[in-house]
């Protein structure tokens, strides 16, 4: 993966862990696109008990693949979590989102 893509994923890492509530939705889209194999899915299912663990392992897996799958991840996020996708690229990895409103949960309330 290109260094600039790794850097962006590093910046967004915590937001992704907190905001992707159903990792299997994203994983399924990445399998359909050919980014992940069934073996990758098996590894994720066997080694991760929570959705956040799956997201963490998935991001590491994508960063360590020979090809740059950043755009594939973006497409999967756009399909599965359009509000999250928008926030990541307009907010440079800001806090977790309230998916009912599409707004950051980190907003200070006075």
Output mean pLDDT: 83
Structural class of the secondary structure composition? mainly alpha
In N-to-C order, the SSE pattern is HHHHHHEE
What is the spatial order of strands in the main beta sheet?
1-2
Gross morphology is: globular
Roughly how many Å is the radius of gyration?
Answer: 14 Å
Number of strands: 2
The amount of beta strand, in percent, is under 5%
Main sheet record: 2 strands, antiparallel
Helix content: 55-70%
Distance between the termini: 41 Å
Our count of helices gives 6
The low-confidence runs, each spanning 5 or more residues with pLDDT under 50, are 93-110
Description of the molecule:
- The protein is mainly alpha-helical.
- 65% of the residues lie in helices and 4% in strands.
- Strands 1-2 form a two-stranded antiparallel ribbon.
- A hairpin with a 4-residue loop joins strand 1 and strand 2 (103-104).
- Helix 1 (3-19) packs antiparallel against helix 4, helix 2 (23-32) crosses helix 5 (70-80) and helix 3 crosses helix 4.
- The protein is globular and about 35 Å long.
- The termini are far apart.
- Residues 90-110 are annotated as: Disordered.
């Amino acid at each position: 993966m290109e260094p600039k893509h790794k850097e962006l994923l590093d910046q967004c890492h915590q937001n992704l862990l907190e905001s992707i509530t159903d990792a299997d939705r994203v994983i399924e889209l990445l399998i359909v696109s050919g980014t992940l194999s069934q073996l990758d899915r098996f590894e994720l299912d066997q080694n991760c008990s929570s959705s956040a663990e799956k997201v963490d392992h998935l991001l590491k897996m994508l960063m360590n693949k020979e090809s740059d799958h950043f755009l594939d991840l973006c497409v999967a996020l756009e399909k599965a979590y359009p509000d999250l996708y928008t926030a990541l690229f307009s907010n440079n990895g800001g806090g977790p989102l309230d998916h009912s409103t599409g707004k950051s949960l980190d907003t200070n309330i006075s």
